[in-house]
Amino acid sequence: RESRFRRNGGSVFPVELHTGPVEIKGRRHLLSLVRDVTERQLLQEHIHHLAYHDALTGLPNRAMFSHALHHALAQAKRFCRSLAVMFIDLDRFKQINDALGHDAGDRLLQEMARRLTACLREADVVARLGGDEFVVLVEELASCTQVSALTGKILSAIAAQVVLDGQALQVTASIGISVYPSDGADERTLMKHADIAMYSAKEQGRNDYQFYVAQMSERAHSLMALESGLRTALSKGELRLHYQPKLDTLTEAISGVEALVRWQHPVRGLVRPAQFIPLAEESGLIIPLALWVLEEACRQSVAWQREYLPALRIAVNISARHFSDAGLAQEILAILVRTGVVPSQLELEITEGTVMQNGETAAQTLSDLKNIGIHITLDDFGTGFSSLSQLKLLPIDTIKIDKSFIRDLPGDSGYEAITKTMITMCKSLDRTVVAEGVETAEQLDFLRRHRCDQVQGYYFCAPVSGDAFSAYYRQRTSTSRGGSTDISKVAAGLGKK
Ligand code: C2E
Ligand code: MG
Ligand code: MG
């Protein structure tokens, strides 16, 4: 039997008590054995703590949270109350961790755990699920506005400046919320739905929260189906490349061609890259996919030359995930050798965002590629916040102005001014400048007047199959100059998207 004893000084300590009858010299006595178990109990508490808490932050762990949620659900059912589960995931934590080192990453997580705890009531439970994922249980929920207010408080607590190794930075988080009973009656469903809502908050642009809604599950299911389909798309030969020409603004001669990937899905039809490239990046499928694209583009380039098309430089888009892969340059070299394409005939399009994200390693990778002789283009320029001084240092040949700037030309004085400035800037840095998304004669005219070197867009030709591209090329070179309207009709016919 366990009990508590009081010392002479008044302090209380735990004891283990064994009591039993004994006979001494024919008389019956009651003998009690008392053992001080303070140390044993401390050890047990410690072990219990270790089993149910996260060693880094001291917060409850997944097992403890599951226990608490289980208990809270039973109470909520019994007293007809509601409760909320909140998934909190730090935005871009991996990048911070990679940039500052794991030590700083750990301290950041500890600080975030402290901030989270400070936002909550005594009765709420906050746990760390692992990595940069936290979960909060809000019991005795009066209304959803109460949760909104709390998430607002949490988001701003997290976003307050942190100083790590003398460097000030701001971290944000995305939060997904599921509510009992409307979003699920059991632990597993509530956790799953909060997680799905959190992903939706990330998709909406991060640093925000989302309540779970049933449509999110449908979307998650359809994404999952798409992802599993993508795994076999490569082996089943369902990927295709389409090609879009780049033209010289003044002469309207075709100066290059960009390869754009499509997925010929057996049920959904032709799927655009925006729908599966992010999935491929997340699942790691991007590497085999990108290698297929590179090889197929090089193969096509050689096939065109066999048909006596002049050697056009062929551009391939490289995603952020693949760009940060250490083996990139080596893999590309192997493909060039295998297909017999000379490096100067290959161009890589890397988005401004990718380059900015990768900082110094980006400059190194770019110069490795450039040393091989490959042409480098900075894609979607204007969307990635790079500065003139950064641009000057990067070994890039061409800068491609993002189509969002071209869309409202001419007429929108803001976009006109920005585009003009971007062109002037690129020229002053001695880089070739291309405008993408050119759809009208007026846009072309504006770009021509402001000396943009090259243009690309539906006005000339939408991305089309390899065969259609060579037909377009022949048509175009046999038609006399100035016939861009006729040619755009040909292009529209070819651009069966
Ligand atoms: P991007 O490289 O900036 O390509 C330009 C996108 O604009 C293409 O969309 C193209 O079809 C579209 N476009 C071309 N002309 C016009 C126009 O006149 N008006 C408008 N509104 N749009 C035009 P697409 O093919 O859907 O590709 C979207 C993005 O997906 C590409 O943007 C590129 O970042 C990525 N992508 C495409 N192929 C690949 C690939 O093989 N690998 C990787 N990693 N990304 C790819
Ligand atoms: Mg591109
Ligand atoms: Mg672009």
Q: Secondary structure elements and their pairing?
A:
Blueprint: E1 2-6, E2 12-24, E3 27-36, H1 38-52, H2 62-78, E4 82-90, H3 93-100, H4 102-119, E5 125-130, E6 133-141, H5 144-159, E7 162-164, E8 167-169, E9 173-180, H6 187-203, E10 209-211, H7 214-233, E11 239-248, E12 254-265, E13 269-271, H8 273-283, H9 286-306, E14 313-318, H10 320-323, H11 328-339, E15 346-351, H12 352-372, E16 375-381, H13 388-393, E17 398-401, H14 403-406, H15 413-428, E18 432-435, H16 441-449, E19 454-455, H17 466-478, H18 484-494
Parallel strand pairs: 9-10, 12-14, 14-15, 15-16, 16-17, 17-18, 18-19
Antiparallel strand pairs: 1-2, 2-3, 4-6, 4-9, 5-6, 7-8, 11-12, 11-19, 12-13
Helix pairs in contact: 3-4, 4-5, 7-8, 9-11, 17-18
The structure holds ligand C2E and magnesium ion (2 copies).
